[in-house]
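Exercise 7.
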Amino acid sequence: MKWNTKAMSVTLSLILLMGTAGGTAGAASAKKKVRETTAKQTVPQPAKQPAKQEPSIQQLIDEERALKLNAGDVRISYVNNPQLNPTDAIDFQWMAYNFNTLNDAAQKLQNLVGEKLLAPGGIPEGFGFESAAIDPSIPFFLSEDYKKLRDQLKAEAIASGKKFLAKKYKWTGAETRLTYTRGGEIIRIHAGPKLILPAGATYVSMPGDQSQTLEIAGREVLYTTFGPKSSDFKEELRWLSEDGKQAYKITVNRKSTLTGEDLQTMAASLITQR
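Solution. The predicted structure, written as tokens, is:
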């Protein structure tokens, strides 16, 4: 009996031991599943990206003005906002063509707008050609062409819902500037489309400016000597082409020692060119 009792005790102990081990393993497995489930449930989701903000009007203006322009590039822009553009104006940006020779400038002008470059004869002794520049002809802000262009841009901005509109501008005409120098003396010769002023508008003269009308090579010419408040200008001649469409002027700076007769000689050489 004692042997059997021991056997039963050992057997019972083994059963209890096995049962305990099985229970422990089961509990551990359950806890593991709970931890796995919990881990899966608490995985952080990617944060939603904030909506991209539209650039402000000022940012668009700054970006436009920071654009690098190449020679001949012309851009126009319009701000469709009365607070930022109270005068309803158009902004023009351009880069002129610049040349070191008259031949290159003449060829470019011909290719651009089909016009002939007029270079003066009778340049006073000692003066040398410095440079030539070709600028786009920009509509005067009081002209009908300017108002028409502004209205087109404004209508396009409103139709598209844009507060800022910028685009390339096609050349419609050209202005030329020829520069001759002798030491600190400068002669500048400008040619371009006639500026049409609104009815009742006139050029403003500064105090001390004096003008008179001359006749040179059969053409009416306005000769002006500038007073002390007229920047660096000393004298100027202005006239129109025979058909009245082109305007010309010769200007010298205050360091110039040239006489009025010198300017008239240069003007005559340009007027007689065809």
